[in-house]
Please model this.
Amino acid sequence: MYKLLLSIIICLVLMHSKSQAATLEVCSTCRWTTVTAAIQAAKAGDRILVKKGLYQEGQITVDKPLHLIGEGFPILDGKNETEILTVMADGVIVEGFQVQNVGTDYLEDRAGIRVRKSRDFVIRNNKLYNTFFGIYLEHSKYGVVEGNELVGKAVDEMSSGNAIHVWYSKGILVTGNQVRNHRDGIYFEFVDSSKVRDNLSEDNLRYGLHFMFSNDDDYSDNIFRRNGAGVAVMFSKRVNMWDNRFEHNWGVSSYGLLLKEIYDAEIWNNIFKENSIAIFLEGATRINYHHNDFIQNGWAIKMSGGCLTNKVYDNNFIGNTFDLSVSSHVNDNTFDHNYWSEYTGYDLDRDGIGDIPFRPMKLFGYVVNQTPEAIILLRSTFVDLINFSEKVSPIFTPTNVFDNEPLMKRLVFEKIILND
Amino acid sequence: MSYQTETIMNKILKYSFFDLVRSRWIYIYCAFYLLFTFSLLWLSSDLSKVVISLMNVMLVLVPLIASMFSIMYFYNSREFTELLLAQPLKRSHIFIGQYLGVAGSLSLSLIIGISIPFLLYGIIGSAEIWNYFTLVIIGIFLSFIFSAIAFFIALRHENRIKGFGLTILVWLFFAVIYDGFFLLGLVFFNEYPLENFTLAASFFNPIDLSRILILLKLDISALMGFTGAVFRKLLGSGLGMSLAYLSLALWVIIPIWGIRRVALRKDF
Model:
C-alpha cells in the first residue's frame, strides 16, 4: 500500500516536471527583446510567447523543439533582404505570426517560413505577406500546415515564388489555407502520401495547386479560382481528387485541371465552372471521372495524345462550347452514361436513357483540332449550320466518339457547398 | 450651287426617310428587336451572353432585312424615281439620297430596338457599355453595307425577279457560303501557316469581320487560342482597329461609288 502510494506520488511529480516547460516571453519591455535571444535561452520543449510588436531580426533559426506563439500577430519583418524563420528541429510549432517582406533572390529560394529536415511540425494560423516563397518544406515528414493566409505580389512567373512549396517530403497535411498572388498556390514535388484539404487558392499566375512526381496524394474540398490553371497534376501516380471547385480559370492557355502523364486516379464530385478548358489530358491513363459537373466551360474535356482507359461516366455536361475534343484515336476511353445538355434524342421505353447514342464531339470541334486557325469561324452561321446538320444526320464527323447510354435528365449530386 | 445641291439631296433623303419611318414594316422591324432584346435580357442575367445571342441574330438578320427592304423599296418607288428623273436634278443625288433615306431609317429602328431595352436595363455605367456600342456600330455598318449592295443590284437589273434573286444570293454568299469556302481553304492548306490568310480572308467579308470585332471584345475570345491572339494583337492596336473600321467603311463606299457610276450611265 505504502509502496503504491509512493509510486503514484513519484509518477505525479514526474508528470508535473515534464509539463513544467518554461514560457519565455518576448516583447520590447520583457526579459527577452528578440525572438533569437529567447530561442537561444530556451530549452527543448519550452514555449516562446511573442507579444505584439515589430521584430526585424533577419533570419531566425529554430534549432530545438519549441512552441512559438505569436500574441496579436507580432510582425517578423525581413526588410526585403533575408529569409525569416528557418525551422531545423523536430516537433516545432509556429503559430500566430505575421511574417512579411522576404527579398526576392534568384539563387536561393528564400522563404517566409522554412522547415528543413524536420518532422512532426505544425505551422498554424500565420499571415505571410510579400514573402517570396511563403512556407517552404524540404526533406520533412508528418507535418501540418493549417489555416495560414499567404498573399504575394507576383507579377511574372520568372521572378515569383510559390505560396506553399513542398519538396521531397512525406505525410504532409495542408488544410484551411488561403493563398493568393503567387506563382503556384501550393506546389508539391516528390511529395508522397500527403493531403490537401479545404484550401482556397486564387489569382495565382501559374497553378492553384501543382503536383510534380508526387504519388499517393489526394486533395478535396478546395476552391481554385482565377488561376493561370486551377490544378496541374504531372508525372504522378494515384492522386485522387474530389469535392473541389474549379472556377473562372479563364484565358488563352488556361485550364481548370491539367493532367499530364498521370496514372490511376479517381476524379469525382468536382464542379468545373467557366474554365476555358475544364480538363486537359495528355498521357493520362486509367482514370475514372464521375459525378462531376461541367458547366459553361470552353472545352469540358480536351483529350490530347496518349490517353488510355479513361472512363467518363455519370457526369453532367451543361452549356459548354465544346463538350469533348479528342485529337487522336479514341483508344479504349469511354464516355457512356453521362448527361449532355446538347442531347436532343428521345426515350421511348422511358428508362431514363436516350435511345440513340450521343456524339459529344461536334464536326467543328474536330475541324478545329486539325486546323486550329478555323476557330476564327466560331459562332458563325455556317458553323452553326454544319453542326446542326451533323447532329441530325452525321456524315462527315469522322471520329467514333459515342455516349451509347446518354441520360435524359440531369444528375443531381449531393455536394458540399463550400463557402466562398 | 453647292448649297443648292446639298438641299436637293437632303430633300430626297428626308422624303425617303419620312416615307419609310411612317411605313408599317419599319415598325415591325423595330418591334422585333425591342421584343427580342427585352426577352434576352429577361431570360439571362449575363450581359455578355445577351450580347452573343443578339450578335448571332443580328449578323444574319440585319444584312438580310437591309438588302430585302432596300431592293423592295427601290422597285416600288420606281414611278416616283421616274418623276424625279424628269426634273433638272443630278442623278447621283436622287439615288444616293434615296439610299441614305432607306439605310438611315433601317439603322434608326435597329438603334431604337436595341437601345431601349439596354438603357432600361442600366447599360450606362455598366462594364458592358463598350460591347453594346460595338454591337450598335456594327449593326449600322451592316445596314449601310447591304442597303448599298441592294441598291446597286436594283439599278443594274430592271428585272425584279433577277434583282431579288441576286440580292438573296449575295446575302447568302456573305452570311454562309463564304465561310464554307473559308473553312475548306483552311482545312485544305492546314500544313501551311495560316494566320495571315485568316486575317486577310476575314477582312474581305463584312459579316465575318463584324463577328470577330464583337467576339474579341467578349470573354469567349479566350477560346480562340493562338489565332485569337493574332487577331487581338492586330485589332488591339489603334492601327488595326482603324484598319478594321476602314475596311467596313470601304464596304459602304465601294457600292455607293457603283450606284453613282451606274446611275450616271443608265438609260431610263
User: Anything to note?
Assistant: The two ends of chain A are 62 Å apart (CA to CA). Chain A has a mean pLDDT of 88. Residues 119 and 141 of chain A are 5 Å apart (CA to CA).
